[in-house]
Amino acid sequence: MKLSSIEASFNPHGLRALIVDHNPTSLDLLSKMLQVYRYQVTQCRRPREALSLIRNGQSKFDIVISGVNFSSDMNGVQFLEIINCETDLPVVIVSADDRKDTIIECVKKGACAYLQKPVKMEDLQLLWQHVARKEMLRFRQMKHIDSVENGEPDSSNGGEDKEFCGSSDGGPVLVDRRRKDREDEQDKVERKKQRLVWTDELHQLFLDAVEQLGINSLNSLDQSIKAVPKKVLELMNVPWLTRENVASHLQKYRLNLKKQSGHVQESIPVPTSDSGVSIGSHDELFQTTPLVTELQAPLLLDHYYMDLGSNSILIPNDRFHDPDHS
DNA sequence: TTAAGAATAT
DNA sequence: TATATTCTTA
Fold first, then answer.
1. In terms of Cα–Cα distance, which of A87, A36, A77 is closest to A57?
2. HSE-up (13 A, CA, CB side) for residue A32
3. What domain range is A89 assigned to?
């Protein structure tokens, strides 16, 4: 594993989060909030369900976000214990319980963070840090193991990779850390970063922004800076979108404008084939898209008007800044 | 030093 | 082709 591949986890995009909460409403709310930052969310009502999801390995996760109070079943602290014993997934506890004892107990049992309800967007945006931290830790461990395998001197333990651990619920579990690490590494590679898809909703926001700014000045002689990526991005107000995303889209948009206006305007040269016939017709995408009504636009506009109950919201304008890009 | 816009890569 | 990334310029 190279460091660069670790750094791929230095942002929330595509991180697979398993969220566990007995209350369907807060489960749903948390899910929506996480999706704003493009976490891949799996919901779960009961800890036991969550455990079997993790154990059967069908779906992999990068982080677990759990409540503490569950009506029946096992409680959150037990759940936390078991997960920590069987896996090295980072576990974040979310609860309205602000008693110091509870918090301390959770941290003692291995919670990597304890978030007070109501959860803030900023809290969720930063959860990737816990995944990254574990990732780097694993990296160090692996380097260590490899050096032991290569017969290099080792001052600490004798290269013991197996851990024996009892669990209150399913009997003892034998974990081969080394094998698991390899699997997880493979897994990490498989977590491809998502390629942006310009959905109708997204494109409509783009169009709205461009329109507000005034159609771009095709030649830069026009002093009033109009539809430039940064401005468009700001107006669109989609937290996970990057300037580069918009720039790329804008480039294509302008190209298509040019093509289309070629039919009307003489001043702008139109690409022609050998036969002198104008080539390149319209691109569907940039034809007049039907206006998206609030009802029709599900997730995306949801982000705009999402009501988080207590204080209505909210999409923070300061987007996450990818350190890779700086 | 930032960001726009073009060119190029995937 | 659509989108991402890199390069050049301001």
1. A87
2. 21
3. 1-194
A200/C4 CA-to-C1' distance in Å: 20
Question: A290: cis peptide before it, omega within 30°?
Answer: no
Please name the residue whose C-alpha is nearest to the C1' of nucleotide B1. Answer: A326
User: Same structural domain for residues A21 and A157?
Assistant: yes
Strands A40-44 and A16-20: parallel
Q: Supply the CATH number for residue A94's domain.
A: 3.40.50.2300
Å from the A288 CA to the C9 C1': 33
The predicted-structure confidence for A188-229, as pLDDT tens digits, reads as follows: 545 556 789 999 989 999 999 999 887 654 433 344 568 999
A216 beta carbon < 7 A from strand B? yes
Mean pLDDT of chain A: 71
Asked if residues A232 and A209 have their Cβ atoms less than 8 Å apart, the reply is yes
Whether A162 and A118 map to the same domain: the answer is yes
Chain C bases closer than 7 angstroms to a protein Cβ: 1-6
The nt closest to A199 (CA vs C1′) is: C2
Domain count for chain A: 2
Whether residues A130 and A245 share a domain: the answer is no
- Closest residue (CA) to C1' of nucleotide C6 is A244
Whole-number distance in Å between A324 CA and B5 C1': 21
The reply to whether A186 and A79 lie within a common domain is yes
* pTM assigned to the model: 0.61
Considering the domain architecture, whether residues A190 and A212 belong to the same structural domain is answered as no
Alpha helices in A172-237 (DSSP H): 177-190, 200-213, 229-236
Residue A167 sits in the same domain as residue A219: no
Q: What is the pLDDT of residues A233-282, one digit of tens each?
A: 999 988 889 999 999 999 999 999 888 876 554 433 434 444 433 333 33
Cβ contact A225 with chain C strand, < 7 A: no
